[in-house]
Structures
1.
Amino acid sequence: MIRFLLGRLVASVLVILAVATASFLLLHAAPGGPFTTDARRSVAVQHAMEERYGLHDSMATQYLRELGSLARGDLGRSMKKDVSVNGLIAEHGPVSAIVGLLGLATAVILGITMGVFAAWKKNSWVDYLLMTLALVGISVPSFVLGPMMIAAISIHLGWLPPARIDGVSSYILPAITLGLIYLGTIARLTRGGMLDALGQDFIRTARAKGLPERRVIWKHALRVGILPVVTYLGPATAAMISGSFVVEKIFQIPGLGTYFINSITDRDYPVLTGVFVFYAAILVLLNLAVDLAYGVIDPRARRT
Amino acid sequence: MKSRAWQRLRQNRMAVACGAIFLAVAVFCYLGPIVAGLAGLDGTAIDTATGATPPSGGHWFGTDTLGRDMLVRVMIGGRIAILVAVVTTAIALAIGVTWGAVAAYAGGHVDNAMMRVVDALYGFPTVVLVIVVMSVFETKSIVALFALIGAISWLTMARITRGQVLGLKHREFVEAARAIGVPAHRILLRHVLPNAAGPVIVYATLALPQVMLTEAFLSFLGLGVQAPLASWGTLVTEGSSQIVVYPWLLAFPGILMGITVMSLNFLGDGLRDALDPQAHKLR
């Protein structure tokens, strides 16, 4: 297990390094320099600005300097506004994180419940209904569902605010829209894991010693049945990040996703690549955590 | 063996119905505009005087804010969406099958290294990378869209192919081919891959809806299919900003896209169950 985790740690560092290198190369391959604008500047000013950002040094020097500042946790500065990427993340990240975690919680709690019931009542109408719902959920894109929910729930019924973050109730619709992106996948994975678990010997033992069925399902089987969902948390977070772009756009939430997408139209490349490195780092850390959690939940995984 | 799988598929009424629905949508999108053209509708005629009108006898799906017929626009959007899905899936298929087959057939350290790459990419924000690449290069070309979505969608395909080839590479007919000196690439192409086709087809079917959603997602962010071309993704984006005033602008492309993605998902599931009944019990 230790060997395995060490291997994963090395791989994680390599992934971050690859991401940093890719974003460095992308920045330099971008058409036009960062200061190519319509504004007329004298050659001297242009030169001074380029000098300030060290654009006259050799590629290798710039690359090493970039890696050095990254190692110190500095993700770079915006080229359009006088802010650092770290500052942007500190300012806009928390809102995105809250919406993301609420969405994940919605998806995990509902998805696992659906999956457990479907496996419990295998091949009954409950199973078919839940699994059909799960597949429908996977198939309807969030940018169709989100606006429809706004129109129905916020505008026609007036129950929840249609946009912007203003009080607790305004988190509900964005969290549901975001959660529905992977709710279906979690339900399907749980069903599969539970069916797998319910066929194993330790379940027969638990039943044989007279445990109530509810306890067998929710305590004994779920612990093993949940493992595919734990593995999926990495990809789920990746989906959550890209989903946040859509959800924050639909609900006009001033989160990191909105800022990231805005920097596309602003052509603020350092922000694009800086936030990209940040996203990659989050995912890499999360995948490491998932590997650890795997060993905690399933003692059998520790032996390998 | 194959015919038994076919029989199982036909018994799965849901999957068969969904296959028929997908075909119907494809025919609707590809032949529809021709028929509509005969009726004097062409989705590009701008009529700002009428503007957005709700569905009526003349315009079954209504018109958009520029007075263009939504029925034809939805059909043409479907053409692009299906085209993008098929082409990018084909690209993903080519990369994934090659990667998985080479890894499995080479084995050892090569296999290990190649599959670690796949593992690493699995937990990687590939869609975000596509966004960064597309915006940094300011590319608006649909070919770049094909290539980039294809380049991030091959991971599952590589795993599936690897699993299949691992199971096949020590079978007697492969040993026999090797014994008589058939070169490795020929063994893979002629003897191994044709036998791995089933699961690969299943996952290609399941990749189609996935890729379709990715394209719509990029279009929603303004990075996908660009005007004057329109895919379901771009139509949905236009519609979602007008949902309260002109709900039909979102409803028709949104529902049609949902139906298409859903029918492909159900069809793929059915195909998987038919080829591998064991999977039905578990997954």
2.
Amino acid sequence: MIPAVVVFIYLAVVLYIGIFAFRRGAGREGAEDYFLASRSLGPVVFLLSLFGTNMTAFAILGSSGHAFNNGIVTYGLMASSSGLVIPLTIFLIGTRVWALGKKHGFMTPVQMMRDRWECGNIGTVIFAVQAVLLVPYIIIGIMGGGTTLSAISGGRVPFWFGGAVVALVVMGYVFFGGMRGTAWVNTFQTILFLVFGAIALAVIGAGMGGFSSAVTAMEQSPAFKPLLTRERIDPFYFFSYTFIPLSAIAFPHIAIFCLTARRMVQFKKTVIFYPICILAIWLPCVFLGVVANRVTDIPEIRAKQEARRVLASPQGRAMEPEQREEMREQAAGDDVLLRLLERFAPLWLAGILGAGIMAAVMASDSQILALSTMFTEDVFAFYGGKRRFGERVQVQTGRIFVILLTVFAYVVALNAPEAIFDLAIQYAFSGFASLSPLLVAALFWRGSTKWGALAVALWTITAVAAVAVFQEFVPAPAPGQTTVVASLGGWPALARTYGGTTVFRFMPVVPMVVVSALLMFFVSLATKKPRPETIARYF
Amino acid sequence: MRKLLLVLVFLVIYVLHQDIWFWTTARPFVFGFMPVGLFYQACFSVLAALFMWLLVRFAWPGHLEQEVEQVTGGGDADGKEVRR
């Protein structure tokens, strides 16, 4: 129970930070203060908070879970490629978004796009696509909070109560603190992540008697040796993953966050240190996930390994899809880090480390605030609400939206199966990556048009839905096997794999981004450009 | 010319991410425990940070900040002066 108490103390601290931020902002009641912290964040808060905003529960729990089943490839797939692509997009796009925000007062990407391409309702379509792709994150964040609190307390805190506590705390500091509170909490959480990785590595390493013997023993085992290499990974799949981080800058909460810096110079340290922050958090988590396979005295870990073994055996290949899915859930490793901490960390330390994990699963705060900002600016203000009722009512609307969205997410989290949202999240990254040509075209190409933008938005939502439907109707084969649905010239044009879908051996994100870029190009070429005076304000 | 060089450096780094040369081997274990493929990718993160430093040093879009200062009259911390 001690770890749960420490986590509750942590939650209280986080809530207090939000309320403190509210007091700090007292007297400044404008929309820009609530939604963008008056564009006044300093260098340290900007770096740590931007990084924390981008780190979801997956960074800690999911990365070690993925590494548990897939090995060291997890780092190359998800961390090192992000360490190159994300800061590059912040450098190229984030700085320009910041400058335009300062010059023209934009508070959301859609506001900028409406102005850049002289459009109204097309902006609403882009808003709707962004919202549809973002909402599952908020739901899964609350689910993660409930699950983690329940696991940390040894089941004494039920899922519904844990989820409610996490939802209330997040709602509380977003409601009161707005962007300032969210940024401060994210800064605090990022520091916890960074400390967490190092402590977890040291404690678990000491508990296991050092890592050398564990890794050497894994190398001797035919079952575990592939986890130390990438021999089971298709290089096409590995390459595809470098497209996923394009999603980061297209996520509204990241683009909006770029507007909060006081000066552009604050981007300098952020882009330089971003890859190092990724290294500091992901490397320990991935490595611990891999070596967890050697900790055979934890029954839960043995059960996962057994499920993995069965899945890969002829027995697994002969299973019905539903049975295989069940077995796959048993093999999932998202809780291996928690199991290692239970086994090796003293109780008080497990509590502190549990707080670090809670920090990771509470990353939905900036997404809730971003949706609230988008709703009040892109819908409420755009359709006349601000003009009729004033800025004060606009901020109140934003706060009410935060409550309604959190309650909605909590109710859905209690009643819907998690697998649906897992799937939604799986392809939301691809969806936002597919939206990235919107920002590139708006900022770097004079010839882009609103019709090109509409084509990109419609293509993105259609492609995400098509992949989801495809995976619903074509069940996943056993690990290592591929169900080829269509071939072209001997190549698997469309295939269902154990992990998802491939198109010419690439993940769907590659054709999605390429087609998006082509649509933007060709549709823009064929349609009318904005007025020269509008274009002149951007180039 | 400088920008072209930076684009070339980026392309080289992007290719270096696809390290097929350590694809099927775990050894040597760096520091006695870290598979070489993982160590390589960790070093890649450091390389990415160095590349970002190069970008900031040689391709910083300082003109954007100057434009903002011209429009906002400089020293603007709140960005409230200019509204469409």
3.
Amino acid sequence: MTTETAQLFFSLLTFAAAAGSIVWIGVWFAARRGHDGAAQLGASLGEAAIWLAFLVALTCTLGSLYFSEVADFIPCRLCWFQRIAMYPLPVILLVGALRRDRGVRWYVLPVAVIGAGIAAYHYLIEWRPELDHGACGLTGPSCSAIWFREFGFVTLALMSLVGFVTILTLLFFRFPATLSGRDGTESGSVQKETSL
Amino acid sequence: MSQRNRTLAIVGGAVLVVLLILGIALVASSGDDGDDTASTEAGAGAGTVEPGDEAGGSESGDGADDSGSGGETRSVTVTGEPLPPLGSPDDDPAVGTQAPVLDGEEFDGTPITIGAPTDGPTMVVFLAHWCPHCNAEIPELIELDEAGSLPEDLDVVGVSTAVAADRDNYPPSEWIVEKGWPWPIMVDSADFAALDAYGGTGFPFTVMLDENGVVLARKSGSGSAEEIADWIEITLG
């Protein structure tokens, strides 16, 4: 796979994740308003939420590693901060999914919110470099210098932002659960937490 | 369908969507030569960089040829002791020392000298064509100039440096015209002789000299017109 193909692939995945998040939130609102079909769909989706979030985090992590290790895109300072936030998530979410521990979202929340905030700022200064009163370094890439802009606006920072937001959407727009925790991690509070 | 099977079906469906998108990407990119890597029509100053570029460190391509005239880099003669690399602008050991004299050319071949005694202070601005912060800095400087906010006796001179033929806005000779740079500009050599002589560590890199070529201040990074005006005022006292 060429770098150009990877850019297109991950850009399309970004669209899919954004669209999926919007649909997810739409179903959630419909279920909250008592729509039976949405509630049924939501119940099924809700059971898979942690696995889906794991899939998103894993894809983001592998994509990040591809662009730095295979495509040789040198990560800037803000890229590194986002990596620090993203890389633990597949591991945390995998453990949470295997344990069917819906409380895993509370461990993901602070990390993903910080990552999303940094990604939003990074995307902003890519368009408005004057807001970042830094300099282009001699020894590393500037945070406002971009590697590519697929479709005119999809950059690595936007991919990162959508990834974090999608993970948060999957974990925090929760549907009434039908499962209970496998062990005591949050088993006593699973039923209590079925409403958002 | 059991709960476990439902979850499996949903996650499996998501994986299939990912594979489908991968297939679409492979088919779509096989239909062209991969020239859709980047849209560079981004916002002000933002540009794309290419793999393998160390920011400021790439000098590959025909632009790196500074033998003879007409290139995007030219020979620069440095006379005097080079300034130390800029660390903290607030504690800069170069302040108060004599800057080396730079002899070089503008893009049109006109000889230009920086650092020699003049009638007033000189602000030297080192610019890299691919640098978003340099692209943001230039309109702010022009705004100051057009508003009459620059001191009358202040000379402004640019230095086009860190030229990379495979990076955004190349060639700098055209870029500087498109940006409307109204002041003289020296063309640095392929090994950044002028930048190194003045201790530049990032872009844009600005050095204020007094009329005798003594360093008054150095700074790295861009700023708004107001911030630049404040810096000039403080620097010139």
4.
Amino acid sequence: MTASKLASRSTLFTLLAGLLLVVLIGWRIAMLGDYTFARIVQDFLNALTLGSLYALIALGYTMVYGIIRLINFAHGEIFMLGSYFAFYAMTLTPMHWGLALLITVLLGGTVLLVLRSLFNLEEPKRTAALALLIFAGTFFLLAFRNMGWIEALLLSMLATGVAGVLLEAVAYRPLRGAPRESMLITAIAASFFLQNMGQLLFGPRVQGFNAETILNRPLNFTIGEETVYYTGILIVVPTVTAVLLFVLNLFVSRTKLGKAMRATAQDAEVAQMMGVNVNQVIALTFFIGSILAAAAGVMYAIRFGQIHPLMGLIPGIKAFTAAVIGGIGSLPGAVLGGLLLGFIEIYVVSLFPTLSAYKDVFAFVLLILILLFRPSGLVGEDLTEKV
Amino acid sequence: MRKSLLVAALLLIAGSLGLAQVKIGINLELSGRFAAIGNQTLNGIKVANLQTPEVLGQKVELVICDNETTREGSIACAQRFVNEGVIGVLGAISSSMSIPAAEVLQDAGIIMISTSSTNPQTTQIGDFIFRMAYTDDFQGKLAAAYVVGDLGAKKVAVFRQIDDDYSYGLAGFFDQTAKKLGAKTLIQDFVANTVDFTAQLNNIRSFKPDAIYYSGFCAEGAPFMKQLREQGFAQQVVGADASDDPQCPEGAGAAFDGYIFTGFATPNLIADPAAKKRAEAFKQKYFEVIKNAKPGDFNGFVLAGADSYNVLVAAIKAAGTTDVKAVRDALGNMEHYPGVSGDITYKGTDGTPKDRTIGFYKYEVKSASDWKKIELFGKSTAEVQ
Amino acid sequence: MMRNTLLTLATVGLAILGLYLLTQAEGSSGLLSALTLIFIWGIAAVSLNLINGQLGILSLGHHGFMLIGGYVTALLMLPEKERAPFRTRLLSDWARNHLDLDKWLRGAGLDFIANSIDLKFVVALFLAGLAAAVVGVIVGAPSLRLKGDYLAIVTFGFGEIIRLLPNAPEVAALTNGPLGIKGIPGDAGTVWWTFFAFLFVLWFLTRLKFSSYGRAFEGIREDEIAAEAMGVNLAYHKVLAFTISAFFAGVAGGLYASYLQSVDTQTFNFFVTFFLLVAISLGGLGSITGAVLGTAIVVLVRIYGGFLEKPYPAYVGYLGGAVVMLSAFAFSAYIRKARRLRPVVETKHLIFGALGVALLLVTVLFRNEPWMTQTVQFFGLRKILLAVILILIMIYRREGIMGRAEFSWKLIFGPREDIPTEEQRKQDAWLSNPDLNPDAAKKEDDDASA
């Protein structure tokens, strides 16, 4: 940070606000009386989990916005699809070999085509190897295994990634040159389409997601006189998120395709002139974003125990808020925003229980304030074009 | 010539008889949050329709409308029925959907029999509105008497869904009675589709309740019970008739083990032996007719649906005409109708039958796919003051 | 001009007559309900069109304005018996006793208004619109700093905040919380009331569109900087547009509350804005006629599309799916052929065709299997249809049905503009030159010999 930025008024303002916040929290904790250290730890675990889930979804929003400047309203529905694919993977397997064969051919074929185009796998040997892996693996999993949560997670991530690519190809690519408002409207329409398609295909009821796994066994440990209650999922979610983020970071910074993505995000035209296949990059962005959202969906389903076709609405909005808070277009910003929003949500409700009714309003108020007064978010560049 | 005229006349009469139909509208939550209960009720009505397909020599036509578990949908269904000129409307399930429909139907002078709305407001809207269930003041009082009296709880945490008339009202009645019986209560609110109850659970932690009363539905109940048990709360939880839904044990699995709730009476719990026999007979017929019915699909809601149909048809028969006012009067004066959910008397009430039986049940859950609903005992609303 | 006015008046007169006959007809209440809804949503749609279409700013918070209008109307018009604590549980005593239009009017000595429920409704709707307009100023303010999709998100955020607020416990003292307000008198929700309200709004907004304000709005839409250079005060006009739009949205919300006779936060959710968005996009963003047309189509789909969601045996679903897929494939091929795009059949469209054929095969082969004959119901098909319509419009015909054009009597009764008149012929060098146009040579001969 340069000296001039330190001295700038906005930073001073932020520091003052931070100080005020600390004082407020300290006073509030004193007022509450029974706010023990154990509670803080409990809330921390909850916040970390919630924040990680928001971060995963927010990454999808921010990546897509960074590349094609589109707010993908339908991302929440991708999140929902992820949990439903995992649900069906876990409950319908092992399935009849004929059905398994059918799904393997259809799904495997689509996955193969999509992966080939995304990752430039033109070599016949590589393609054949990949095809064998996908087809054999899928068929085996579907027909012979009663899938556990990890296998379901992986399969669901793959399937949802493909779904995201299909969404882009069908709904967004035809509008590539159109004004941004039209793309936004299409995104809204796609969101409603997926929600109601979900209600049609999966049933409008709330569906219990019972991963009777070790993740759901109640665990606890004691701190002083108080107990901290948690379950395995509160450890798994941040871990899985961290792993995925690490892999994503590796991909974006070290591989050629990752470089192509960064180039396209900077300036799509020039990237194209430099030989980057922009269509491929965009499809890849949707693929990765959807994979992350699917992971979030599965873990959300395990954590809260139920899924329904409209489950993507509120988390989607909150994740989008998180992405904006962190700075839309910036990957670390999305993670930061997600964690921040998770922490704010859990701790504010914990410290001020009477405000729990306003939980969702927070997210929207924050969104408007950030867009009005600091549209670049916390980490992003100062965007003068928007103001 | 004369023969053909006669044939034509006969055909016309036969045709008009065939055309002449008594229309009964059905306004139920067949999709959305309460879809499970809605479909159970619909099955009950269908079986009852199979048993009594005609009245006054005319065929009974059921016009089914799905209100999608929204107030708007319920109003739309009610208005549609006003336009189609039905004699009566059966439904809705929940009070939130029944009350707006009742306003519309009362204005239009069409009979409405809500199969399971328990909020007292519903029948207070007017004299064309009836119900088949008990009211929440009884349910709340009975539950409070059980929790404070039988379970001996001195501190009760009450969880209510603030945007649903049924849940909100019921929690209020429970709270009133529990306080009158000397217990301390702490009320916690949540809205529809809440999955995260950490805030509410944090709030009751220092309150250290002896028991917990849950007046909401299974969509929120499942995550609630799961998180309750995960967070180390081992208290007895008592629920209400909205928990009489497979979504509860299937949604949260073992967390629902030992969960006690009040609900519509099943045949075994009906005190009156004659009514019990009728209910058993109906249960047999139900499983004959409805293919792929699981044992968990038959409950008090099915009986309530069937009886709503039965009393309306009986009222039409008693009135001897399809004139709505006359049928309403016949229904309003009905005494001791032998229903499958018990004896039904509307005379002298505001539309709520006298002496309904409320059943107490317990869930025994080993896992989400292996659970049982145990019948504990039944209490009549006549016993409650 | 005289002719146009006379024609318009005549049409309105005919419409009134038609409406009257309809109300007297038997079994027409379904159609009357549909018309009432078309009028109510029509008012909301043309008010949204003012911002989205004419001003060119995408606003996604319209359901918030309607909600405000609905709640204000409800509170003001709630009759005495509904104000009992039992019916309005969370409403504070202050709100119960003081937010009563009847009391205000009688207190002010305006008994003649208080005694007529129609006049009371006029006052209530006006106040409702006013309340919504005040909020409209607040929501419109960010439009001065933001553009494009960021602004859209901000309006969306405002809309959702407005939707969530009435549920909050502190505000519940004014709004009866999540339980909503029931028992609102339905007199303003009848077809006549909504019809005249609709006519008024149409007249007002049409006058606005063809006034200097309307031209300013469209100038801002086309090129803000140029408009500003021409002396259009951006801030004033943008906020004005939001205010007027919010006012009429509030009126529409109040009418809807009267139609439903109850109001709660679920009634005015984001789907309402989406619904209106489909309506005006279908009709043509920027055209009032288009908005009305689009609303009519969308409302009719919503009301009469119910047959799509009835129980059918499962094979109907598969067959329907096959038909949809194959027609989508045929449609896209046709469009590409018509627009002379190559290749005519794109790979991704081939997927639709393949899926369609597959579904058809499945239907034919497994027609009598039990899983084909069981009854299913396709809930939500109408909403899916609306979403698909919007996506198709955005992809294939962004300007909708009318584009930005308005209906005018000139289209029907004016002179044909595609065929040259005599004057134009004479002036046209090519047409009148005998060397180039043999007909002209003949004509000259005729003229000469005549």
